[in-house]
Amino acid sequence: MGKKAKKKAAKRRQGVVAAFTATGGGSISRDEIYHRLEWYFDHSHDPGRGHTIDPNTPIDSLFQGMDPATGREVLWVNINKISPTYIPAWRSALFHGVQFPWISQPPIAIGIRDIQSLGNLINSAVLTYRHFGWNVT
Amino acid sequence: MRTFVAVAFTLTSFINTAQAGETLSAAIYDRNKDGVLDEAEALVWRLHAQDPKVLAKYDANFNGRLDLDEAEKLRADNARTFSERSQSVANDVLFFKNRKVADIDKVAASRPPPATPTEAKIPLGGCGNDQRLFVRRDRLDTYQFRDSTFVTGFVPRTKAKGASASFTHDDIAQTDSLTVNGRVSYVIVKNDPMSPCFEGISSDPYAKRDFNTPSLFGSTVALWTDAQGTVNSPRTKNEKSALKSGFDAQVSIAGGPLFDLQYLIASPYAQTDFRGDARVYGMTAAWEPIAPNLRLGGTLGAPASSYLDWFWQFRAEADVKRVDAVGATALMRGDYVWGGAMARLHLTPFPDRSIYDAFSPSPFPDLVNRLYADLTVNYHREFDRGIDALLWAAEVGFNITPDGGASISVRYTDGKDKDTLIKQRQYLVALNYKF
């Protein structure tokens, strides 16, 4: 990639991030939550190029070197530790400090213990944001 | 050898897969209640069985077709549930939108089936009724004593290797040999966070919790007996066996500033051999940390690069043992106080990045998930006798099948094993098969 192309890509990414952060402050889209989760699992994810991880992807396949039960426990702790952490690329805390649940309570919570796919995790995040007072569009 | 008799058996249970059967009862299709389905009644029954979601649901007068009022009810229900159904495919819409049709067809044809969250169920008969007895190959094979009654996402029993025993009789040499590799465990106390019976977390799923402070997250106490080795008749010089009994007391700690999860395991034990000649007593204490951000204990998410992925594992342990009789071991009488650690580095060249970018083909499709390399270092020091035991092994392998079910590997092992105090320098070429 040439210097000009790199600059263009960087500008495009900045634009996308800026557009996302503009929705902050109590309102967020499912689209942005999906992108943030993709970035959480793959820091090279570019939100300007559409979604790249299939929502049907089994959650177990994202745990490298861990059995599925341990993987879920580690994911629950790790994602909640990073949730309030400010990420410069997103110009905000990655998941705005909302706390993902471990156990489910239909219809208000999908616990990380029970999720089977990335799509389940996105749905869990949507319910979590709503619980913490966010308007998810 | 003219006659060779070998008996091998596996002690793990088998899971029967039930055949799918007829689920639509014929009872309500016997409209005239004469106890028999006539031809017209049987026709409607089969039509409904063929189309359970629409015809069976909306054909209220059982004539085998949708009349106007029934079709109107279908239309109204369809309109009423539009929003709910749209929500259920919202993630798919976001994933596929603005993509080329050819790319969509390619990805959609090979994507995994959709999954719904599986809420863990309390075992039949209550929380005290989950699986307690485990018959497996070794400690690792017990999968933290997790069973299929409540664990979501996988069934450890189907993945377990199971205990095994084999008996060989050589008719020419007039020798017998019995080899046993197995571990029987009985769980006395289990408080597993994967179980709905888990105590230690609020029933409010959103109860505030500090993830930067370590806290207890699950515990298990289990009795076990572990048998590994061979006994021969007549006795041979190289006969080695260990028969150990003890208990595991394990706790896991979640959260903390550095590690996301830590396991602490204490295992007092008594050891002998298959002939009952050895007498060894001891206790092992171990610590296993997991921090995916440091790629320690595994990772969450994408490979480090398109060319190489890696993670490492670490286990620190102390082992204190008293040997009263050496039996079929290479130990000497007296006390041993070992302190040390095991570290393992696992490398995967050309890792599979396809799940992180479903629309981009891999640059090395023929090499993805085929090669691996493993480096393991065990170092222990015996403090009373001043013995250093360094044992390291390097292995490179090639997965013959794309799923890694069969592989060929070359392994080199060098050093001294602390449990046997025997020096090793071995090359091993192996064909591995996993089922």
Quick recap:
The complex is a heterodimer of chains A (137) and B (435). By secondary structure, chain A is mainly α. Chain A has helices spanning 3-21, 30-41, 68-82, 118-131, and strands spanning 27-28, 63-64, 86-87, 92-93, 135-136.
Explain the overall architecture.
The complex is a heterodimer of chains A (137) and B (435). Chain A has one domain (3-136). Chain A has 4 helices and 5 strands, in the order αβαβαββαβ. Chain A has helices at 3-21, 30-41, 68-82, 118-131; strands at residues 27-28, 63-64, 86-87, 92-93, 135-136. Chain A has a two-stranded parallel sheet. In chain A, strands 3-4 form a two-stranded antiparallel ribbon. In chain A, a hairpin with a 4-residue loop joins β3 and β4 (92-93). Chain A is globular, with a radius of gyration of 15 Å. Mean pLDDT of chain A is 86; it is low at 10-24. Among the domains of chain B are: 27-110, no CATH class; 277-435, no CATH class. In chain B, 13% of the residues lie in helices and 40% in strands. Chain B has helices spanning 39-50, 55-58, 68-80, 82-88, 90-96, 101-110, 156-159, and strands spanning 4-10, 133-136, 164-170, 175-191, 215-233, 241-254, 261-272, 279-290, 299-300, 308-325, 334-349, 371-382, 387-399, 406-416, 423-433. In chain B, strands 1, 2, 3, 4, 5, 6, 7, 8, 10, 11, 12, 13, 14 and 15 form a 14-stranded antiparallel beta sheet that branches. In chain B, a hairpin with a 6-residue loop joins β6 and β7 (261-272). The chains are: A mainly alpha (137), B mainly beta (435). Chains A and B meet through α2, β2, α3 and α4 of A and α5, β9 and β10 of B.
Supply database-style keywords:
heterodimer; A: 137 residues; mainly alpha; two-stranded parallel ribbon; two-stranded antiparallel ribbon; 4 helices; 5 strands; 44% helix; B: 435 residues; mainly beta; 15 strands; 13% helix; elongated
